[in-house]
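Hey,
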Amino acid sequence: MGRQVRNQPPPDAHELAKKQREISVSEFFIRNRHLLGFDNPKRALLTAVKEAVDNALDACEEARILPEILVCIEPVQEQGERYRLTVLDNGPGIVRAQIPKIFGKLLYGSKFHRLKMARGQQGIGISAAAMYGQLTTGKPTRITSKFSPTRKAHYFEINIETHTNNPIVVKEEERDWEHRQGTQVEIELEGKNTHGRQSVEEYLLLTAVANPHATFRYTGPEGERMEIPRATDTLPEEPQEIKPHPHGIELGALAKMLQTTKSRRLSSFLHSDFSRVSTRVALAICESAGLEPAARPGRIARTEADRLYQAINTTKLMNPPTSCISPIGEDLLIRGLKQRYRGDFFTACTRPPAVYRGNPFLIEAAVAYGGENDPEGQVQVMRFANRVPLLYQQGACAISQAISEVDWKAYRLQQGRGQFPQGPMVLMVHFASVWVPFTSESKEAIAHYPIILKELKLALQECGRRLSSHVRGREIADLQTRRRNLFELYIHELSQSLSHLTGKEREAIREKLLKMARKATRAQDARDRAEQEELAQVEQQFKLSAQGAVEEGETLVAGR
């Protein structure tokens, strides 16, 4: 007989409640670190470099300093795939009180609540890299920062208390530092260094294309060195912070703003807390919602807030201002491409700003065609968001979908159905916005909003039209060259035959025939020429005519 098992009564609500507790954001991301781009050692190393470099570029640009960034990856001896990552910048530095919070607390930063273009958005990146280093090696993150040439540098060693998402300062002191100002971050982490695509070198080269105003220096774990000098001494135009646009606000956010605003009147709240709402428009919204303009915003009830929300969305408003966006610009796009790629043809297109969910954005596209690019392979695509390269999740990105949906055959490129085009081309696409709609926290793919797809296609099609004119002109020029070369094959025999027939000097006849060939086959503008099929027919007719002339000349000479 087996032991009889007593049936346990199921737990009641009180016992279940004892098992419930708050989850720290750090604990959540430790268990879901793949969401932040730390799902494997190769990608983890690249993501840590990316987050540190992004912060350095943002800090330098906000302080109006031409960035000089050093990236160094050193292997930790006898530790397998363990590296010490060091990123040094010449930026403005960080004040002492902010250093522990920036590097030791997730979801802490200055960019989340500001509507202006920036690389970082959520205050997760660099602290997540620090947390990953702590998780895989147990070592604290080391930060050295100096904000004045006359002051000593602040040195910190920081860990993250994952249960509370708070920084733990392991060590703090002031140090002499040879640099005038700037910030240096050192993270020891588990990683895998690779070369080629999706490597640290590739990331820095692509970053230099979208940030031609920055200088990058890189030292790899195998002693390899790379320096990318800046292509321009002009900083990007500084984006200006804007207020939220009413058409991008949801009902819950509107209700919260009503409770927290400093305005005392509803009309002044609409005018001062939103962009593109004049005093006249604010009064019109109040009238449409059936609310008094002088009403206190904090006393607006939920039903009244709902009416206000509906009135806002039915009122025609101007698009939000675009001073919050800083595009790369067509000239610098081409200059950046030329610094990295060789080509016969370069072009770039910057679209006018558009709006999704009340957030302004614009699309830029650039093309490098010909040169050393593979004429039979797939077009090389470079995706960027706010000047940051996107190296992963290409298939999930709106940029990739837009490229696949454009009919590249119309622009004289080969393309399979629903595929990227084929040809000797590098295609660069840049998405710039105050808030990039990434599909995940790892910030590698852009969401598929219809208006975003539309703008992407329009930019790509504009580049395609310019490329088509170049390709067609080159095809015609090549055809004309082939025609001239074909004619020249018979000039020697034809001039000799005509010399026998006319008694004139053969060289003089040959020179005249060459002039006639060059004039007849001179490359002209593609739009003023016949279609390539017609030129091919002319080529065939010319070949037959030339052969007939030679045969006729030889027959006459023989008969004479």
